[in-house]
């Protein structure tokens, strides 16, 4: 059995909606609603889902970049939400994040070399020569040239900025990296470079990834296991191979068939979902997917399906499986 | 015989910046035929949107300027039309939808108002007839409860619904050409599938030509009849869709097709095109792809390859690899 | 490492365009391209040279009382004439300028220090700290500035503060009463910056609060601070002039543009001897117009949204 690196149980994250004169809470956006999963050391877990399904919120909440509403998050057996502030800060280097937007994730007024290396100063490395050496080494690993050390972020293209973001996360020798849609903002030819970089790094440094994406094909390529989310809940999770060979949840099936395949001769029986994604502030009762589900029946409207193992480590939440 | 609707002939659109001239569209020629969906593919900054904006003559000037070429629309050169005639064509015969539907809709007017206004203006319908037509259009783009939507405001609708409304507005005057600039990029995949279905449906029903601009080869494969691939301001390959996907010629097109992970076809390692898109300022007269190309030859670095037919079905490309037997350096 | 992770080879074009400047150089270039702003800058430099170097070359003395030369119209000896005690107006105007400019800049410096620090603290820590600081700011903003200043000026007079040290009190008072605008702006900026992904990255990297505030947040608010500070220099000079005009700011014999203009209080002086009040009046006008031009130029130059 592999070691569990990150254990998330019944995680909930609600964003309050305030209204009225006194800014009272009038409702909650249930961005993450009772989600549990484990990430083993050395694996990469993919999280897929459409906008508003809470996948990015999970990425940030398990790193305690925003506060949870309920549930527990254990990293290497330690409850992140019970750590005092300074101890948490010392833990930070072990778990890093790479952001989607290569533009807003870099401070426009800080030079690249400094942006990558500054964290070292706050974690005990004081010799600026050592810092510079380590920055250059990391830049090299990430495909950046050393003469780019003193450049400002605006001089770089999207793909290079993403490399800078990866270098910044990498310099602390992390064990766990949350990659929050790291290639979604990039062009196809650059996407492939970054995906390859991420998978090389994983192999060379034994990294553990939580890879968040809306693109099933990227997730299939990069991840060992995949979780599918809809409106704040996990609807299906299994090993990548199993999920793509035998998707069980109707939402997963629809998601897979909706992806345009770059082959004009490819014919498929497409499940086109009707209607829009409901608002997470006011999710449907019962199974949250029943408003768009092609096989929904009465029980789906009344009762939320249990999220259960149907064998082969394949978890799914649907009444008809 | 299918007639040509739009023909770009050696179009040149340049942007003048302090750092130098950007040839955003550099000697671009291709044809959109009636009732056909033509896809323009390329990465950001390759000039695909600027080509469409040149057709609409919505290039912001300065810094942009159409400096050469012709755009023939049903035989008339749009670049020679007066501003008035052009604005009649815009909206009436050519209409456009954009990537971000929210910024194209006025947030303080109802959907109904925004659909019926051009009807009253261009088609000279009265208020009642305009409303009737507007509701027809809303139904056409696949929205149930059109009456309710008629009276709602843009912020009350989801991204997919707004894009449908944009399509309804674009179709309001029965255009001959619909330009769609990355219409589904901001949408989720399941919604994207709906919108693509809708566009296919409309093309069949109304026989509208579509110029679809996208970076997603999957969308191209699903939608296109004919494909134009652009790189750094130039058309580098064009072909009917089947031909292009089965037998891509230009190394860039080949690379793009290989670089995208395809669902249910897991590879060990993705093919990737090394390097990045060249800086568009003051490009030299060579093949702009040469420094990323694994087949780069000496001639690629100094001379632009001619754009001409190689192989069957009017399959054109601009690459020295296919020129060897015709020209010796 | 495989081929696609190797350092990117750049073509000649990218290299050439890599001569892009730092954000500051870009701002400087944009500023110098703005004609009005450059004119404003030249005017301010001229005022400084006039006020700080001019008196050195003056043949007169500030305390040259000579009643026989009183109220002279401009002539070759007294270029701008003399006042009712026979002192040279030009010399007094230049020395008054030193005081006025000094009050303007020092008062603004004080306001910036207080405002930026409190604004940054309020924006960064939020919650109770934010509430306290911003409610205090509200109180300050609710005070009618001029009456308060007049009262404080009167208090200074009542305490028999020495006229020469009075200007220092004045700088502190004007500065302390002016921190609120800047505090609000800086706080607002920091609130938006805090939501940016690069700030989440600093949190994820486990940076210390000091580094987050001083290396990441404040440098991004500097454009706002510079623009606001520039414009408030003009405000401070005007406030000082108004107070001195009313007799509660800088008091004679120390000259200031404001108390020189108060000559216009006297109907005869106002009508018959315009050389008494027009030169200091012009100085105030030129200075505040110039500073406002610079401020506008800086705003355009530092705003990343305006592209030129």
TrEMBL record, chain A:
GO molecular function, one term: ATP binding
A Pfam family: oligo_HPY
Keywords: ATP-binding, Nucleotide-binding, Transport
Transmembrane is among the record's keywords: no
PROSITE patterns (UniProt xref): ABC_TRANSPORTER_1, ABC_TRANSPORTER_2
SMART domains found in the cross-reference section: AAA (SM00382)
Transmembrane segments: none
The ABC transporter domain, residue ranges: 6-256
Protein family: Belongs to the ABC transporter superfamily.
NCBIfam families assigned to the protein according to its UniProt record, in alphabetical order: oligo_HPY, PRK11308.1
Name of the molecule in the record: Peptide/nickel transport system ATP-binding protein
Lineage start: Bacteria, Bacillati, Bacillota, Bacilli, Bacillales
UniProtKB/TrEMBL annotation, chain B:
InterPro entries the record matches: AAA+_ATPase (IPR003593), ABC_Ni/Peptide_Import (IPR050388), ABC_transporter-like_ATP-bd (IPR003439), ABC_transporter-like_CS (IPR017871), Oligopep_ABC_C (IPR013563), P-loop_NTPase (IPR027417)
Chief localisation class: membrane
Transport in keyword set: yes
Coiled coil: none
Superkingdom, taxonomy of origin: Bacteria
Every ABC transporter domain range: 6-257
Cellular location(s): Cell membrane
Pfam families found in the cross-reference section: ABC_tran, oligo_HPY
Membrane topology of the entry: Peripheral membrane protein
Family recorded in the similarity comment: Belongs to the ABC transporter superfamily.
Protein name according to UniProt: Peptide/nickel transport system ATP-binding protein
Origin species: Paenibacillus macquariensis
Taxonomic classification: Bacteria, Bacillati, Bacillota, Bacilli, Bacillales
TrEMBL record, chain C:
Main location: membrane
Xref: CDD domains: TM_PBP2 (cd06261)
UniProt-listed InterPro entries: BP-dependent_transpt_permease, MetI-like, MetI-like_sf, Oligopeptide_permease_AppC, OppC_N
Domain ABC transmembrane type-1: 97-295
Annotated TM spans: 36-57, 99-124, 136-155, 167-186, 217-238, 275-295
Location(s) in or outside the cell: Cell membrane
UniProt keywords, alphabetically: Cell membrane, Membrane, Transmembrane, Transmembrane helix, Transport
Membrane topology: Multi-pass membrane protein
One Pfam family per UniProt: OppC_N
Similarity comment text for this entry: Belongs to the binding-protein-dependent transport system permease family.
Protein name: Peptide/nickel transport system permease protein
Organism from which the protein derives: Paenibacillus macquariensis
Classification of source organism: Bacteria, Bacillati, Bacillota, Bacilli, Bacillales
């Amino acid at each position: 059995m592999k070691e569990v690196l990150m254990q998330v149980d019944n995680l909930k994250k609600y964003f309050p909606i305030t209204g009225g004169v006194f800014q009272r809470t009038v409702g909650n956006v249930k961005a993450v609603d009772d989600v549990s999963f484990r990430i083993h050391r050395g694996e990469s877990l993919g999280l897929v889902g459409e906008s508003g399904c809470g996948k990015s919120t999970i990425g940030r909440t398990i790193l305690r970049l925003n506060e949870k509403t309920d549930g527990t998050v254990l990293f290497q057996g330690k409850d992140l939400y019970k750590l005092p502030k300074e101890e948490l800060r010392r833990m930070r280097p072990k778990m890093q994040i790479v952001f989607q937007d290569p533009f807003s994730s870099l401070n426009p007024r800080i030079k690249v070399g400094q942006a990558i290396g500054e964290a070292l100063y706050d974690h005990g490395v004081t010799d600026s020569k050592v810092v510079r050496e380590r920055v250059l080494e990391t830049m090299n690993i990430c495909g950046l040239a050393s003469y780019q050390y003193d450049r400002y972020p605006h001089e770089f293209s999207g793909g290079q900025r993403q490399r800078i973001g990866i270098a910044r996360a990498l310099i602390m020798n992390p064990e766990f990296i949350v990659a929050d849609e790291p290639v979604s903002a990039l062009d196809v030819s650059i996407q492939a470079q970054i995906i390859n970089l991420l998978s090389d790094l994983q192999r060379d440094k034994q990294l553990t990834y939580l890879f968040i994406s809306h693109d099933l094909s990227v997730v299939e390529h990069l991840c060992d296991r995949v979780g599918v989310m809809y409106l704040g809940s996990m609807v299906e999770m299994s090993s990548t191979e199993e999920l793509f060979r035998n998707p069980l949840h109707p939402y997963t099936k629809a998601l897979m068939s909706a992806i345009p395949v770059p082959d004009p001769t490819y014919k498929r029986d497409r499940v086109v979902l009707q209607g829009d994604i409901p608002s997470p502030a006011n999710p449907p009762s019962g199974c949250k997917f029943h408003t768009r589900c092609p096989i929904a029946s009465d029980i789906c409207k009344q009762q939320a399906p249990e999220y259960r193992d149907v064998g082969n480590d394949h978890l799914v939440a649907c009444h008809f499986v | 015989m299918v007639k040509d609707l739009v023909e770009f002939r050696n179009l040149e659109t340049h942007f003048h910046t302090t750092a130098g001239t950007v040839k955003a569209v550099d000697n671009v020629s291709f044809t959109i035929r009636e009732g056909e969906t033509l896809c323009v593919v390329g990465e950001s900054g390759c000039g695909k949107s600027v080509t469409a904006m040149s057709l609409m003559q919505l290039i912001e000037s300065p810094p942009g300027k159409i400096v050469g070429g012709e755009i023939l629309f049903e035989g008339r050169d749009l670049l020679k039309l007066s501003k008035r005639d052009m604005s009649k064509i815009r909206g009436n015969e050519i209409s456009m939808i954009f990537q971000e539907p929210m910024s194209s809709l006025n947030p303080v007017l109802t959907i109904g108002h925004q659909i019926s206004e051009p009807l009253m203006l261009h088609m000279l319908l009265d208020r009642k007839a305009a409303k009737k037509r507007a509701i027809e259009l809303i139904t056409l783009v696949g929205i149930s409860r059109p009456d309710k939507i008629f009276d709602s405001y843009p912020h009350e609708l989801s991204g997919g619904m707004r894009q449908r409304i944009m399509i309804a507005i674009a179709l309001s005057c029965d255009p001959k050409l619909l330009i769609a600039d990355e219409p589904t990029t901001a949408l989720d995949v399941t919604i994207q599938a709906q919108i693509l279905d809708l566009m296919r449906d409309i093309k069949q029903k109304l026989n509208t030509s579509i110029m679809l601009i996208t970076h997603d080869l999957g969308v191209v494969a699903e939608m296109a009849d004919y494909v134009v691939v652009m790189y750094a301001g130039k058309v580098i390959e064009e072909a009917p869709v089947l031909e292009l996907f089965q037998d891509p010629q230009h190394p860039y097109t080949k690379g793009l097709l290989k670089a995208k992970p395809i669902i249910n076809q897991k590879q060990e390692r993705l093919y990737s095109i090394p390097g990045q898109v060249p800086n568009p300022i003051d490009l030299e007269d060579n093949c702009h792809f040469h420094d990323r190309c694994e087949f780069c030859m000496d001639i690629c670095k100094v001379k632009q390859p001619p754009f001409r037919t190689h192989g069957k079905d009017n399959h054109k490309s601009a690459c020295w690899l296919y020129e060897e037997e015709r020209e010796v350096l | 490492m495989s081929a696609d992770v190797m350092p990117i080879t750049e073509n000649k074009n990218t290299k050439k365009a890599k001569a892009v400047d730092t954000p500051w150089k870009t701002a400087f270039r944009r500023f110098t391209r703005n004609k009005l702003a450059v004119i404003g800058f030249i005017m301010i430099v001229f005022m400084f040279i006039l006020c700080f170097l001019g008196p050195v070359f003056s043949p007169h003395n500030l305390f040259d009382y000579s009643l026989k030369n009183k109220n002279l119209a401009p002539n070759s000896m007294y270029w701008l004439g003399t006042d009712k005690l026979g002192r040279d107006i030009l010399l007094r105007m230049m020395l008054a300028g030193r005081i006025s400019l000094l009050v303007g800049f020092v008062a603004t410096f004080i306001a910036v220090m207080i405002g930026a620090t409190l604004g940054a603290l309020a924006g960064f820590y939020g919650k109770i700290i934010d509430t306290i600081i911003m409610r205090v700011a509200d109180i300050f903003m609710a005070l009618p500035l001029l009456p308060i200043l007049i009262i404080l000026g009167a208090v200074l007079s009542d305490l028999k503060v020495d006229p020469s040290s009075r200007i220092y009190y004045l700088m502190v008072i004007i500065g302390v009463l002016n921190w609120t605008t800047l505090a609000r702006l800086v706080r607002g900026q920091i609130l938006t910056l805090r939501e940016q992904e690069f700030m989440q990255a600093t949190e994820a990297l486990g940076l210390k609060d000091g580094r987050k505030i001083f290396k990441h947040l404040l440098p991004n608010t500097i454009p706002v601070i510079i623009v606001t500070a520039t414009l408030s220099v003009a405000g401070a000079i005007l406030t000082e002039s108004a107070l001195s005009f009313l007799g509660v700011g800088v008091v004679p014999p120390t000259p200031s543009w404001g108390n020189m203009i108060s000559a216009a209080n006297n109907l005869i002086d106002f009508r018959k001897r315009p050389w008494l009040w027009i030169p200091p009046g012009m100085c105030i006008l030129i200075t505040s117009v110039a500073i406002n031009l610079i401020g506008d130029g800086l705003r355009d130059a530092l705003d990343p949204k305006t592209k030129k």
